[in-house]
Amino acid sequence: MDLKDNQVLRINQVSELVGLAPSTIYELQAEKPPRFPKSFKIIPNGRAAGWYAWQILEWLKNRTGANK
Question: What is the pLDDT of residue 68?
């Protein structure tokens, strides 16, 4: 997947990228403190949510220890 840092990803893209089911992603972001980046509403008061690609890539980097 060729990503730009400011690209907005939807749940199916995030799921494919990180290898987790959407339900697992939502569970991780609902934990206190969240263990996955919080999504944001693409349109205020709308249903569609997304994540910036840089957030997900940073999360992956931290999980794999690639930044150490």
Answer: 52
Sheet architecture: strand order including 8-9 = 8-9, 49-52, 40-41
Q: How far apart are CA 48 and CA 42, in angstroms?
A: 6
CA angle in degrees (0–180, nearest 5) for 13-15-20: 165
pLDDT value at position 67? 57
The full set of domain ranges for the chain reads: 8-64
- Count of C-beta atoms within a 10 Å radius of residue 9: 20
pLDDT means per 10 residues, the chain with 68 residues, are 86 97 97 96 94 95 74
**Looking at the DSSP assignment, which residues form a beta bridge with residue 66?**
none
Cα–Cα distance for residue pair 23/29, rounded to 1 Å: 10
